[in-house]
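Changelog entry: the DAK2 domain fusion protein YloV record was regenerated in this release. Current contents:
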Amino acid sequence: MDRIDVNTIKRMFRAGSQYLTNKSDEVNKLNVFPVPDGDTGSNMAHTLDFAVKEMEKASDDMNEVLNNLSRGALLGAKGNSGVILSQIIRGFAKRLMNHDEITTKDFAEALNAGSAIAYKAVMKPTEGTILTVVRDCANEALKLTSINDFEIFMEKIVKAASESVKRTPDLLPVLKQANVVDSGGQGFLFMLIGMLEAIKGHEIAVQHVVEGIHKEESNIADIKFTYCTEMLIDAKSKNFSKLKAEIESFGDSIIVVEDEDLIKVHIHTNSPGLVLQKGLEYGELVKVKIDNMKLQHENVIFESNKDRNTYVKKYGFLAVSPGEGISSLFKDLGCDIVIDGGQTMNPSALDILNGLKEINAENIIVFPNNKNVVMTCEQAKGLSGKNVYVINTHSFNQAISAMINFDVNASIDDAIKNINDTIQKVTTVEITYSIRDTVLNGTEIKTGEILGFVNGQFVDKGTDYNELARQIVLNAISDDTSIITIYYGKEVGEENAKKLLNTIVFDGDVDLQYGGQPLYYYVISIE
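Regenerated structure tokens:
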């Protein structure tokens, strides 16, 4: 086989998805830390599974298949590894557009395009990760373009990826210390192996990735402005932020987004004529749409965003929560949307995007509350067409402190600065357990031992979670500490949590809250 067509591409991605799903648990176990939060395999499998499901909706037109595959990966992306994989697929698909058949040279160039876009998507690329593996694989593919037989070509690509994965511990010391290879790179390798099996004509049994994140529903408010007005402007000026400010007084539900040379505007207003007149100052009106919402009694979709509410407030909030107690706290603090998602159940970009659609606010502040969810939220932000601000929170207690201290009267710039200042003052203590033998910072860890972390860094181990928590907290407090909040997890009863509470004595307040988070006995906030 010297060329592959659209049906072969479909088979390759189906098989790649199925093989990765089959191996997802194996990838999950390649976590650097021995704590129960390794979900790289599940996240990558979910991302690819979602992409393939979108691909299946397409006809046999190559461009449609590639577009669906790319969009599905973007929407289905979970966790950092899923977001990076989605960018690889995006670049790969973009390079192969307008091809009825694909040669080995085309495939190699597509891999390189995917690698380039993935590197750009990461603010600080780290070598020894999936980025390195896909780049090594792509570089090797370019050397193999004289090979016309796709099976031989793919075998050599898989070999190159496998060798790159084996080298990852030499590039990233934490991998070598943990005696594992990079999980993202291994997941990418498994996808390629599945693709090779498809080229060989082999079938791989289908396994389904469990999906589903609960999202809080918002109520639909009464219609305040009559006309839903949309216009597409062939822009002379790209200063669309100025345009947004100029039409702000005309209504609400304002969305102004740039798409190449066009500006797309959506607004609910009682003065559509004034809006159109203002648009003409920026360029020619390519398309205009005005709907009377009171007559239609329906929501209007603009750029795939449903305006579920018509009252627009200044600030809206979305938070990712690992436990029922935490979710209740976020709701009590005025969070509009709370999405379930802890260490082993990261939400997808679509989950976040759907949540953003439900919030009708000028500015939406998002708290990922997990370092593995930040990139997913950023991806959803880019797809939303709304003013979204993703805060780099790595734990829910940072977000709770930020919301408690939030000033609704502040400007958005001051609000974001205040939030970042607040979370910088929060020290986070986490108490969990080891799921395998390993070495952390020179300390031997055995399966089942209790582990303590401060701001994500391992500090100590023990056999009793209350005693370990007490020791770490007392070492972490300073003369500036004014309050300690203990969030106890699902596996800790209130009685046990109160015992810990009574052992922490200092000149300040100590508060006890039910968090309900799984896997972590305690998350303790020191401020």
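The CA atoms of residues 323 and 517 lie 4 Å apart.
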